[in-house]
Amino acid sequence: MQKAGLLLGGCARVWKSVRMASSGVTRRNPLENKVALVTASTDGIGFAIARRLAQDGAHVVISSRKQQNVDKAVNILQGEGLSVTGTVCHVGKAEDRERLVAMLWKDKATEDSMKESMHIRRLGEPEECAGIVAFMCSEDASYITGETVVVGGGTPSRL
């Protein structure tokens, strides 16, 4: 019985740590003295991830294809007092990125169909993806290895 209590107490502490890391309740700079290079990070999910990593203490390097986008994102995050620099970086072929973006809720019927397959019946926000990335980069996740974490609103996945 005592072992069960210790085990449950340990689980509660771990859950509290995960919940706090994701929600931002108590920040203790879990990524202090780390550098994070985040590609495609001037908008959307990439920007939210860059912001979250910087909020958690990392120095973040923003990257994008266009200097003006890099400058804008860097200015916003530095304006929030975060440690951020930026550089222009081409990742992959332009036509592949354009095709991907043109596909990521093209019409209302596609969006509604996607929502229907999700348990929470809504599309996610970029900030909702950023929390798990910050957690996985932190020491709180130091014992996690070789896992796939799906941030998909309960959408069935086959990875």
From TrEMBL:
A GO term from the CC aspect: peroxisome
Query: Which GO terms fall under biological process for this protein?
Result: retinal metabolic process
Q: What single Pfam family name could you report for this chain, choosing any that match?
A: adh_short
* InterPro entries given in the database record: NAD(P)-bd_dom_sf, SDR_fam
- Keywords, in A-Z order: NADP
- What top-level branch of life does the organism fall under? Eukaryota
Q: What's a single GO MF annotation on this record?
A: carbonyl reductase (NADPH) activity
Gene3D superfamilies assigned to the protein according to its UniProt record, in alphabetical order: NAD(P)-binding Rossmann-like Domain (3.40.50.720)
Q: According to its UniProt record, which protein family does this protein belong to?
A: Belongs to the short-chain dehydrogenases/reductases (SDR) family.
- PANTHER family according to UniProt: DEHYDROGENASE/REDUCTASE (SDR FAMILY) MEMBER 4 (PTHR43943), DEHYDROGENASE_REDUCTASE SDR FAMILY MEMBER 4-RELATED (PTHR43943:SF8)
Q: What is this protein called?
A: Dehydrogenase/reductase SDR family member 4
Q: Which species expresses this protein natively?
A: Sciurus vulgaris (Eurasian red squirrel)
